[in-house]
Design brief:
The structure is a homodimer. Chain A is mostly helical. The first copy, chain A, folds into two domains: 100 residues, no CATH class; 289 residues, Neurolysin, domain 3, CATH 1.10.1370.30. The first copy, chain A, contains 21 helices and three strands. At the A-B interface, helix 1 and helix 2 of A face helix 1 and helix 2 of B.
Chain lengths: 506, 506
Amino acid sequence: MSGKTEYSPKMQALFERVAEFSDLEGIMALLGWDQQVYMPPGGAEERGLQSAALGRILHEKFATEEFGQLIADLEDEIGDLNAETDVARSVKVIKRNYEKQVKVPLPLLMESIKAQTMAHEAWVQAKARSDFSIFKPHLETIVDLRKQYVELFQPYDHIYDPLLDDFEPGMKTADVKEIFDKLRPQQVELLQAITEKELPDNSFIKQPYKEDYQDLFGRHVITCFGYDWQRGRMDVAPHPFTTGFGLGDVRITTRYLKDDVGSALFSTMHESGHAMYAQGVSEKYKRHPLGGAASLAIHESQSRLWENIIGRSKEFWTYFYPSFQMLFPEYLAEVSLADFYRGINRVEPSFIRVEADEATYNMHIMLRLEIEIGLMEGTINVGDLPEIWNNKMQDYLGITPPDDARGVLQDIHWSGGMIGYFPTYALGNLASVQLWEKLLQEHPNVPDEIAQAKFDTILAWMREHVHQYGAKYDPQEIMIKATGSKITPEPYMAYLRKKYAEIYDL
Amino acid sequence: MSGKTEYSPKMQALFERVAEFSDLEGIMALLGWDQQVYMPPGGAEERGLQSAALGRILHEKFATEEFGQLIADLEDEIGDLNAETDVARSVKVIKRNYEKQVKVPLPLLMESIKAQTMAHEAWVQAKARSDFSIFKPHLETIVDLRKQYVELFQPYDHIYDPLLDDFEPGMKTADVKEIFDKLRPQQVELLQAITEKELPDNSFIKQPYKEDYQDLFGRHVITCFGYDWQRGRMDVAPHPFTTGFGLGDVRITTRYLKDDVGSALFSTMHESGHAMYAQGVSEKYKRHPLGGAASLAIHESQSRLWENIIGRSKEFWTYFYPSFQMLFPEYLAEVSLADFYRGINRVEPSFIRVEADEATYNMHIMLRLEIEIGLMEGTINVGDLPEIWNNKMQDYLGITPPDDARGVLQDIHWSGGMIGYFPTYALGNLASVQLWEKLLQEHPNVPDEIAQAKFDTILAWMREHVHQYGAKYDPQEIMIKATGSKITPEPYMAYLRKKYAEIYDL
């Protein structure tokens, strides 16, 4: 932390406390990473207890009256200091986190951690057997605990607001609904136009590509993007994710499927986007209140930028397809660049969110938001979820999942108590294009640069306008500063229309 | 923990506290494992701070007056309860650890952690450049801090006692000296007899064996031994080690050298011995005061058993050599079993402890013990270490290291403040054979079983007589219970004489 000496003793005490929290949160993240990546099965029980022990320590250290008093004193101390200064912002961010923590009684916290551990195990089983009844009682408990949690934040405008705010600070349910209401008819209209056309072939993607060459190519691509291997690494895990143990160690995972080369490829690019955001936070925010991220939507704007806007673009493949073709001649020797590009951009209603194309992805999110709001409002019962899910899939995408594993049981989020998370995926899609359009206005040459595997203009722009600030600004502030507007669906829809008009000759 | 309900509320409070310590110590071990195995360079600074933060929490939670009072109350409560019961032993072990912790002021602890972090970095550099002057000031600080530490344990018989006791509870410097005094002339005599004979060829070992087949063979062997992969894993690290995060997750590492197939092979067996000990502790000691190990010497007795007594035996290779030959025909097709066996048991004075053969290994330890005692007594100055080291090498082994990297700088221990650790290696060698001889008396068929790759009698015997007890008994108690005697050099020397008489025709 630079300029330590300027601070008052109390301010210094605050920063030192936060540095310690940051150390302990880094440790917590390592426990989770290892659990998903390398832990043998026998370690599960003790690992759960280790995470719980550390979680309790974090809560006990953070949610104290004395710490609340320190924050209050510092609010007085900074008084009318410019609200844009790091110090003022730090106190604001700490206060917000503190108030969320201190409201939660330790028994509710520990009960929630326990319920989530059990719900996760049940969900894994339920999904494997495609049997929702195994998961049902656990999800009922989760929803009940989330309702107890939300009640601690009375008064609110909407019962879903406190949940959403945990992932997207400052965002209201009404804001999301407004955005989604504008988005929905446009997405439906575009999808209808596309489905009248012939589907491009993508059978060459659905082949058993050699894993070591997939790994080679994925690492090559994200190295070109600018992922810093000195401060990170990539491993294999059942579900791709990004995690960080500090500014100096931001790791990603990927997974290789036997029948789809796109899975590892695009999720590696996706996770590298998350990781480059975390690696791009200003060094001065190391072990600092502002060392995190603005929100999940801003995070997702970065991952989707590299995965979709860049990674599924014609310019990207103009440069990289020859290398890709060289590695996999058995599947690609006869496939032209044009056909490959059309293949990886094939639009088709499908059951699984994480495999959805750009034109249908947001529909998966809208469906989940409606269900989550219904669960919290009490208008939807957990027991009716499979039927409701399937009906909504039919409404939105015109298809019905053949089983619950490919329906209501597909996502891990609810088993971990993460209700309120899904909307950030769609908001991130919108934000990604909004930032991209602004970048393009300032640097119209960027597509040509991509076609030469030059990504430094893009990364530098994102560093300057998004990454460096860490958690200093709220997500909508970031968007306004960077693009002049809050998150809005127009750029995204314009981007989709233009892209698919060309591919599908609309 | 079984039978929880029988305990008094205070006893239950004690066990709950210890369970939490155990969770946090498991986390600390994970931080270390990841640091050595997978952490990218950029993570080092924050990892150091994370370990320090957790270390501070452990100290603050453990070294409290209130906890000391709880222990004192429980000593009264158990009163004249049989000292052999788990409860009585648990209180004894906790009290010993508590008294060690509480005597160390937090500033000294934190200064030591910091000094060790810096000394480790300096040692890495010094070793790489073979320049002792880089390490010298750091080692001076380490020795000074160790002296401050030892003073907290006045009165003692010998200044080295408190250090030794940290690794080998109950063992005194005088005990070790007595054992080494008996051992030294016999080791020297045996070595002289061997060096008059012709050296067996071992050039076929010093070849660039394929790493993936080395990995295959190593995993196969320790699977046969009985290492439980459900509760562990093996990774590659610069230095082989074993670590555990609980009874359910005990991991090992190995390393593959480009010019010596023996390195990974024997260190994999070695570490599996440590790990099977940790995996063999009774399930009832999970997150329990007795869940650790008796001592480092007992630990080393297990690792050396599998590495040397079994792994370098004729019986072992009678079974495994055909498989090994199949994997590496390019180096072994023309090498007979007899020549291979002689090659891996070649005796030759050498510079590096970890690569020393069974006949010279203990000399490396005796040299280090003399130096450590001299440093603590103040009769040896850090600045004179390179010269003293080289002179002692000439005395003991008749060779002089060509540089300090292969001399005084070779070991990591001192940079981590671990003075008092080395003697446990030699004690472990002695204990390994002492246990082995007892096992052979009871199960004379065991060598034949080894020749059929049957290791369950051995593992079951060690489980019964050593592993299951965890930290319940002090090391010498374990040895007396299992073999009828404290650690003594006779069985070891008899074993060496017999083995080398045959190989070298003495």
